[in-house]
Fold:
Amino acid sequence: MKKSNLIKASLLSLFISFTFNSGTYAANAPTTCSIKTYSGHYLTAVGGGGRITDVIHSDAKKVRSWEKFTLIDPGVGVPIPYGIKTATGNYLTAVGGGGRITDVIHSDATRQLDWEKFTLISLGGGYYAIQTFKGNYLTAVGGGGRITDVIHSDATQINAWEKFFFTCGL
Structure:
């Protein structure tokens, strides 16, 4: 990673951590990030987004365009409920607001409503848990490396498979 991107990613991580931990709120510009699973694979929005089936894979070993997601701060609330946009400009949706093991994620939303809001919980060291609108956590099934049964949204505790590493400023 280039030194300038590493610095940007570190600053964003510090900003997000400070914002959540201090209870303060400050709007920020959209930020493009990759999201790595606990096993070291990247999340991919299949087809760049716009899908309701075969939506997310977790087997990518490199960051390309479909492995880049844009965090959208809607400018309201503490903690900050981010929208996560795909390469096609669609939002990720936690179907039903979370709490599912099938038909978990869609990537076809064009507006950020409640089910398109995710809270990033800082775990330190660049790792975050991704919390759905209903308060459940996203799980990279098997820690990542999958193209089927990839993501669940029914976790109520943060364990290894609920940890995601964000690299931002891409």
